[in-house]
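Notebook, p. 212. Picked up where the previous page left off. The plan for this session was modest: take the two constructs that came back from the sequencing core last week, fold each one, and keep the raw output in the notebook itself so nobody has to go hunting through shared drives later. Recording the first one now, exactly as returned: residue sequence, then the structure token string.
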Amino acid sequence: MSWFSSWFDSPFYHVLYKNRNDIEAHFFIDNLISYLNPIQNSLFLDLACGKGRHSIYLNSKGINTDGCDLSPKSITFAKKSENKSLHFFEHDMRENLDKNNYNYILNLFTSFGYFEDSNDNLKMLNSVFEGLESNGIFVLDFFNSYHVVKNLVSYETKNIDNIDFKISKKIVDNFICKNINFDFDNISYQFTEKVEALTINDFEVMFKKTGFKIIDTFGSYSLENYDSEHSNRLIIIAQKSY
């Protein structure tokens, strides 16, 4: 089983990241919607949606939204918020989508670069391309790998819900690897996160191969210009070229 299949479906994943800032997520979505200015009745897909925090907020703004994720437990949780214009389903983002009429597909909060085989990255981008309508827009929100590598914290401990998560990070074969160790109910657990340190040049090559045209890049959730030295994020806005 891949690291992301086991870790993302673990209850401990949601404990470790329980303090993710919804205010920041809403701030980003607000700025993104203002920038995209979608026409009425546009259809959005939140690809790798987790428990649906971005999807639910998008839908609260009157936007028709689908959300999908590989984790069955996350989708089961997200489905509690479904309504006539908000739907969730399980999906491996490397596989083609059942729909091909999305106006916008979003891949947020570094939900890319997990795969050992670089061809899987292209499979994912191809599935996004095929899932979009003609001239549809793809938004990819990734960390700025230059900044992450430069400021890597090799070890830290986080105490959350009385669990001491011992986290170590290192670079291995151009992957940023995070090892997570902790004890719970006298059982020791170990999980791994691995994300490829992809640069804007890497994305430019992959997007060109899959038929996307990059139309904008931003470096923060306030949509400031991207700067490889100082930006925390790399946000790419791309368009299906036909």
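Okay, moving on. Second construct, recorded in the same format:
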Amino acid sequence: MAFRIDENVCVGCGGCAFTCLFGAISAANDDASLYAIDDTKCVECSQCSHVCPVSAISAPDGYKPIKKVTITAEKCKGCSLCSRACKAGAPHGKIKEPFEIDQSKCFKCGVCASKCKFGAIEVEYE
């Protein structure tokens, strides 16, 4: 499930589409007065809901926000898959050395964890 935009509340400002780094939000009509979220692209990072000035965007049922994403150095092989998958550039490091996550850049979507083949990335939910 993805986040949803209530078309009765959306004012068509486009802030959500501009904020979405995954390209999951686009105009739903020709005059761009209404926006929609593509379920196949939404990673449930919730950034769109934070920028919506009229609170038109809601989380899916059962949604648990991510509190923190961390890398366990002992498990990390330094392959950089997490870094390449992150649209915010939060995971960083040198190849073949443990990576770290810059918490000031991380917007807590968990995409990096889904790409890690070594189980080195832990996601802590609120």
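Notes on construct two before I forget. The longest helix spans residues 15-19.
Flagging for discussion at group meeting.
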